[in-house]
Amino acid sequence: MKTLIVYAHPEPKSLNGSLKDLAVSTLLNAGHEVRVSDLYAMNWKAVVDAADFGPEASRPLKVALDSGRAFDSGTLTSDVLDEQAKLLWADTIIFQFPLWWYTMPAILKGWVDRVFTYRFAYGVGEHSDTKYGERYGEGTLAGRRALLSVTVGGPESHYGARGINGPIDDLLFPIQHGILYYPGIEVLPPFVLYSADRMTGEDYADVAEAWEQRLLTLESTEPIAFRRQNFGDYEIPSLHLKEGREPAGRTGFGLHVRG
Questions:
Q1: Which contacts of 76-80 are long-range, i.e. CB under 8 A and separated by 24 or more positions?
Q2: What's the mean pLDDT in 34-41?
Q3: Angstrom distance (rounded) from CA 131 to CA 167
Q4: What is the residue-wise DSSP string for 34-74?
Q5: What angle do CA 129, 177, 162 make, to 5 degrees?
C-alpha cells in the first residue's frame, strides 16, 4: 500500500504530530510505502491567486477556468504539481488535523483549494442528458481511499445526534463527501478523538493502540456507502435523489448514503 499523509498542525509535539508519527512508523513497519506532506513545515501557501496559474492567468482572474488551462498546459506552480503527483502515486490518503471552528485548519483548506484544480479534481468526464460529469464515485482520483484522522476538543456527547455541536458525521460531510468523494475517492469511516485537550499521557496509550489497529486494517475496512452520481439513484440533470430510494424517515446528509 502506498500512503500519503497530509498533516496540518503547527506544533510537531502536539497530539496530531504524535498520531502522524505513529502512522508513519506503523505503516512502514508493516511494509507499506509512506510519503508525508507536512503543510506547516513546508510553509504551504494557503491562498489561490494568479501566481498559481503562470501564463494562463487571465485578467480579470477566473480561478476555475485558469486553473484548468494551467493544469492542461503543465504550467501550474511546482508545489501544486508535486502534490497532485503525490495524490496520483498514492492508493490511500490520510488527513491528520484538528477540528478548528467546525472544519479543517485554513492551511489544509488552502491545500485543497490549490491542489484540487479544475481538470484535475473536477470538471472531467462527459456531460450529457444521462451523465453529469465524472464525480461522486468517479473521477481522476477514483480507486483511491481516504481516511480523516481528526482531533476534537469537546467531549463525544457534544457531537452526538442531539449534541449541541451537531453530529460529527454532519460536520465532516462537506469534507468527506464534498471534497474527497467528489473526485472519486472512497472515504473510510473517520478516526475521531474527542476531548483531545484533556487527554493525558495515560490516555494516549489506549489511543495509540486504537490508531494502530485502524491503520493496520485500512485495506479491509469498508468505505462509507455514499451514493454514486451516475448509477441510477439521482435524476439527471436535476441531481435530486429519486423518490423512494431512502429508508423511511431519513433526511439531510444521510440521504446520500446507501442502506
A1: 76/52, 76/117, 77/51, 77/52, 79/42, 79/44, 79/45, 79/114, 80/52, 80/114, 80/115, 80/117
A2: 98
A3: 32
A4: EEEEETTTTT---S--GGGGGGG--SS--HHHHHHHHHHHT
A5: 125
Q: Cα-Cα-Cα-Cα dihedral of 80, 85, 90, 94, to 10°?
A: -10
pTM of the model: 0.95
The torsion angle over the Cα atoms of residues 96, 118, 103 and 238, rounded to 10 degrees, is: -130
pLDDT tens-digit map of 133-188: 999 999 999 999 999 999 999 999 999 999 999 999 999 999 999 999 999 999 99
- Residue range 185-243, pLDDT digits in tens: 999 999 999 999 888 888 899 999 999 999 999 999 999 999 999 999 999 999 999 99
Give the helix/strand (H/E) hosting 86.
Answer: helix 78-89
Q: The C-alpha cell of 217 is what? A: 486494517
137 touches 226 (CB < 8 A): yes
Q: For cell 460529527, what's the residue?
A: 168
**Distance from C-alpha of 59 to C-alpha of 140, rounded to nearest angstrom:** 28
Q: What is the number of other CB atoms lying within 10 angstroms of the CB of residue 55?
A: 8
